[in-house]
C-alpha cells in the first residue's frame, strides 16, 4: 500500500510540475506593475516622473519592458485659446475695501507629448549607459517595503531594462469615498470661506479635469492672496489626489523535493513505521467491530473468520481522507518529501495555494472508491463524526491509482514554485498653488480682477427657456416604426439677441437635443448685461429639426419678449388614432381591406396616413400615432375600400374634431347602388401617389374652420 501510494505520488508530482510551468499568460485589461522595476526621472522643467515596468507573465522571456508613468504633473487646465483656466476675483465696496473674493480653477494631471518624448529619451540613454537612476541602494517598493524586506544592492540589479513608455498607468479610486481634497486652512474655515465646492473625485485618466470653486469672505480673500503678494515659499492651498494602481509583488516561493533513493534504501523501516503509526490511529479490529477473529494472517485463520478477514483485506487496500493527510505528514516527517514554502506576505489567498498542492497530491495517485464500497466502509466506521467537519462529517475513502514502481522512483526529483499576488497600491499626488500661481500672474494678468459691486456694468439680466411638451421621450428619440421617424425631433435651436445701445448687441444660442436634456434638463439659460435704460425686452427665435432633414420653420422667425421665462412648445404634438372594423361583415361583403385615409397638417403642410383594417390581419382594432400641428383640433378622413373583385372605391371626406376614433364600416349603400358605386370608383382615382396629397389638402381647406383652433 505504501509503495503504491508513493509511486503514484511521484507520477502526480511530475504532472503537477509540467502543468504549473505550462500555465499560459492571462491577458487582462488591468496592467499589473512591477515595483521592482522602477525608474525615476527628472525632466528639464523640474517635473518628477516615476516609471514602473509592466509585470511579465509566465513564459514571457523578452528583455524589453513596457513602462507606464504614475500620475504626475498636476497643473492648471488650459482653454481652447491656451490660457490657464484660473480665476481669482476680489470684489470691493465703494470705498475700495475688499468685501470678499471668488476663486475658481480647473486642474488635470498628465505629461505633454513633449514631456513624454523627453522622458523616453532619458530612459533610452539610461538603458544604453547601464545606470539606474535614483539612490545608490534602491529600496524595495510597495508591499515589500511595508514588510520590512531588505533593500536591494545596486550591484545585483543596477541596469535599466530597455523599453518603451506606453503612457500613463491605469489607476483607480477608492470606491465612493472622496479621493480629491482641498488642503487649505483658509478655504476649509467657515469663518473665512462662505462656500467651497470641488469635484470630489480624483481623475483616473490624464487630461480629465477637476474643479475647485470658493466664495471667500473679506478676510479669507486677503489671507489667501497674502502669501503670493509677499513672495512666501508656499501658499495656503494644496490639492491632493488619492489614487491606487495594481502592483504585483513576490508573495512566496515553494520547493518540493522527492528523495526516492531514501525510499529504496530504507523501505523496510518506512513500511514498519507506517504500519505501526496506522495501527495506533485505527486498527483493523476496530473497523470490523468483531473481536472474535483477531488473525493478522490468512494462512491459519478459521473458516468462520474468512469473510470478515476478506472485508479487512478490502479495507487495507483503501485509505480515508484523514489517513491520507496523515500519510502526507508521515512522508514529510521521514524526509522522503521536503516541502519548503516561504511567504513574503500574509494573505489568506496563499492558504488556497497550499491547500491546492495537497489536493493535487491527493488526486495524483489516489481516487475515490465506488459509492457502494464507500457506503459500506462508512457504516462500519465509528469515529468519523468526531474526526471530520468536511463532507457533512463523513469520511471519503481512496484507493491507489497504480501498484508498480517506475524508473522515477529511483531518482531524486525537485520542483520549484514561485507565486505572486496583485495588490491595489495606494499613493497620493500633492501640488501647491504656489508652483504655478506666479506664472499666471506674470503671463495672464486677466485671470486676476477687482470688481466694484455697485458698477452698473455688473447688473445682469437672465432669460430662461423651458421645453414644454407632453412626451419628450417620444419626440426626442426615433420611434421604432420607420414611418414615424420623420416626426422625431433631432434638436431645437434657440437663439437670443439683445440690442444694448450702451454696450453693444448681445447674441447667443443653444442647441437642445437628447444629450443636452440628459445633462442639463429641459432648460436653456442665457445671462447678459442688462440695458442701463431699463428696457428688459429681447428677441428670440426657435428652429426645430426633425427626422429626414426637415426644419421648421424653414426661415428664422424672430419674436419679441420681456419675460425672464419663455416656454418652448414643439410645433407638432402626438395624437393616437384608433380604427375599428367588422371583419365578419367585410368577409360577407367580399371586402379584402379598408384603409382609413387620414389627412392632417404637419409643419403647415398636408400629410396623409393610411390605417388599414383587414380580415387577413385578424385584428379588428388598429391604432396609429401621428404628429400633427399643435394649432390643429382635428383631421379629415375617408375610407378606401378594396374589393375582392380587384377594384376599389372611396367615400367622401369627413372631419373629426377632438375625436380619435374612426369606425371603418362597410359602405353597403354604395355597394348596392350602381350609380353610387361608379362615383365611388371614380373618387378612388386620387387615393394614392401625388394625387392623394392634393386631395388631402383640398379636404383640409374644406374643413379649415372646424379643424383649426390649437391645443
Describe the structure.
By secondary structure, the protein is an alpha+beta fold. Among the domains are: 168 residues, no CATH class; 115 residues, Immunoglobulin-like; 135 residues, no CATH class. The chain contains 20 helices and 34 strands. The strands form eight sheets. Strands 4, 5, 6, 10, 11 and 18 form a six-stranded mixed beta sheet that branches. Strands 8, 9, 12, 14 and 17 form a five-stranded antiparallel beta sheet that branches. Strands 20, 21, 23, 24 and 25 form a five-stranded antiparallel beta sheet that branches. A hairpin with a 5-residue loop joins strand 5 and strand 6. Helix 1 crosses helix 10. The longest helix has 20 residues. The chain is flat and about 120 Å long.
Attribute tags:
5-stranded antiparallel beta sheet; 6-stranded mixed beta sheet; alpha+beta; 711 residues; 20 helices; Immunoglobulin-like; flat
Provide a concise account of the structure shown.
The chain is built from 20 helices and 34 strands. The relative contact order is 0.09.
- Mass-distribution shape: flat
Strand content: 35-45%
Considering DSSP H and I runs of 4 or more, what fraction of the residues is helical?
25-40%
Number of helices in the DSSP assignment: 20
Our measurement of the CA-to-CA distance between the termini, rounded to an integer number of angstroms, reads: 95 Å
Amino acid at each position: 500500500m505504501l509503495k503504491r501510494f508513493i509511486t503514484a505520488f511521484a507520477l502526480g508530482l511530475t504532472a503537477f510540475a509540467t502543468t504549473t510551468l505550462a500555465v499560459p499568460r492571462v491577458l487582462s485589461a488591468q496592467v499589473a506593475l512591477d515595483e521592482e522595476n522602477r525608474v525615476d526621472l527628472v525632466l528639464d522643467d523640474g517635473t518628477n516622473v516615476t516609471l514602473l515596468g509592466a509585470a511579465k507573465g509566465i513564459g514571457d522571456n523578452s528583455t524589453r519592458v513596457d513602462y507606464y508613468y504614475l500620475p504626475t504633473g498636476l497643473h492648471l487646465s488650459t482653454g481652447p485659446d491656451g490660457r490657464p483656466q484660473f480665476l481669482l476675483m476680489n470684489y470691493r465696496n465703494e470705498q475700495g475695501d475688499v468685501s470678499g473674493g471668488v476663486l475658481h480653477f480647473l486642474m488635470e494631471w498628465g505629461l505633454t507629448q513633449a514631456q513624454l518624448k523627453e522622458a523616453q529619451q532619458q530612459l533610452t540613454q539610461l538603458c544604453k549607459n547601464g545606470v539606474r537612476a535614483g539612490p545608490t541602494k534602491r529600496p524595495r517598493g510597495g508591499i515589500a517595503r511595508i514588510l520590512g524586506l531588505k533593500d536591494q544592492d545596486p550591484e545585483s540589479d543596477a541596469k535599466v531594462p530597455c523599453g518603451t513608455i506606453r503612457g500613463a498607468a491605469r489607476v483607480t479610486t477608492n470606491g465612493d469615498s472622496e479621493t480629491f481634497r482641498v488642503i487649505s486652512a483658509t478655504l476649509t474655515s467657515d469663518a473665512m470661506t462662505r462656500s467651497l465646492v470641488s469635484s470630489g473625485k480624483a481623475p483616473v485618466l490624464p487630461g480629465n479635469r477637476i474643479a475647485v470653486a470658493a466664495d471667500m469672505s473679506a478676510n479669507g480673500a486677503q489671507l489667501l492672496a497674502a502669501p503670493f503678494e509677499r513672495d512666501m515659499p508656499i501658499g495656503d492651498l494644496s490639492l491632493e489626489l488619492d489614487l491606487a494602481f495594481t502592483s504585483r509583488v513576490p508573495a512566496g516561493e515553494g520547493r518540493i523535493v522527492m528523495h526516492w533513493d531514501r525510499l529504496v534504501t530504507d523501505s523496510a523501516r518506512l513500511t514498519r513505521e507506517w504500519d505501526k503509526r496506522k495501527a495506533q490511529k485505527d486498527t483493523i479490529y476496530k473497523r470490523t467491530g468483531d473481536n472474535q477473529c483477531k488473525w493478522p494472517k490468512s494462512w491459519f485463520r478459521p473458516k468462520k473468520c474468512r469473510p470478515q478477514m476478506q472485508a479487512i483485506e478490502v479495507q487495507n487496500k483503501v485509505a480515508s481522507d484523514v489517513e491520507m493527510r496523515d500519510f502526507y505528514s508521515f512522508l514529510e516527517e521521514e524526509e522522503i518529501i521536503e516541502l519548503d514554502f516561504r511567504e513574503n506576505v500574509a494573505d489568506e489567498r496563499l492558504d488556497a495555494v497550499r491547500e491546492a498542492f495537497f489536493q493535487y497530491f491527493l488526486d495524483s495517485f489516489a481516487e475515490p472508491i465506488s459509492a457502494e464500497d464507500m457506503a459500506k466502509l462508512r457504516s462500519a466506521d465509528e469515529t468519523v463524526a468526531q474526526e471530520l467537519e468536511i463532507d457533512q462529517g463523513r469520511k471519503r475513502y481512496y484507493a491507489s491509482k497504480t501498484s508498480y514502481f517506475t524508473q522515477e522512483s529511483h531518482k531524486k526529483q525537485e520542483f520549484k514554485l514561485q507565486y505572486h499576488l496583485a495588490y491595489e497600491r495606494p499613493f497620493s499626488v500633492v501640488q501647491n498653488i504656489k508652483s504655478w500661481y506666479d506664472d499666471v500672474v506674470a503671463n495672464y494678468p486677466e485671470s486676476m480682477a477687482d470688481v466694484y459691486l455697485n458698477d452698473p456694468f455688473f447688473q445682469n439680466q437672465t432669460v430662461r427657456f423651458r421645453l414644454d411638451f407632453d412626451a419628450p421621450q417620444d419626440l426626442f428619440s426615433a420611434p421604432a416604426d420607420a414611418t414615424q421617424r420623420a416626426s422625431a425631433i433631432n434638436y431645437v435651436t434657440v437663439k437670443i439677441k439683445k440690442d444694448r445701445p450702451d454696450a453693444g448687441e448681445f447674441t447667443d444660442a443653444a442647441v437642445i437635443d437628447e444629450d443636452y436634456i440628459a445633462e442639463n434638463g429641459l432648460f436653456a439659460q442665457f445671462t447678459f448685461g442688462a440695458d442701463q435704460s431699463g428696457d428688459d425686452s429681447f428677441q428670440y427665435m426657435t428652429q426645430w429639426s426633425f427626422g429626414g432633414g426637415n426644419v421648421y420653420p424653414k426661415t428664422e422667425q424672430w419674436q419679441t419678449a420681456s419675460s425672464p421665462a419663455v416656454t418652448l412648445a414643439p410645433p407638432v404634438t402626438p395624437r393616437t388614432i384608433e380604427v375599428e372594423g367588422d371583419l365578419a361583415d367585410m368577409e360577407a361583403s367580399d371586402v379584402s381591406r379598408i384603409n382609413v385615409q387620414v389627412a392632417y397638417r404637419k409643419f403647415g403642410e398636408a400629410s396623409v396616413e393610411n390605417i388599414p383594417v383587414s380580415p387577413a390581419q385578424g385584428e379588428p382594432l388598429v391604432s396609429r400615432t401621428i404628429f400633427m400641428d399643435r394649432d390643429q383640433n382635428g383631421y379629415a378622413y375617408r375610407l378606401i375600400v378594396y374589393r375582392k373583385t380587384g377594384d376599389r372605391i372611396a367615400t367622401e371626406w369627413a372631419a373629426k374634431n377632438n375625436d380619435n376614433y374612426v369606425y371603418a364600416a362597410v359602405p353597403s349603400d354604395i355597394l348596392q347602388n350602381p350609380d353610387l358605386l361608379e362615383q365611388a370608383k371614380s373618387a378612388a382615382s386620387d387615393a394614392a401617389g401625388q394625387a392623394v396629397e392634393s386631395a388631402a389638402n383640398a379636404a383640409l381647406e374644406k374643413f379649415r374652420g372646424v379643424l383649426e383652433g390649437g391645443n
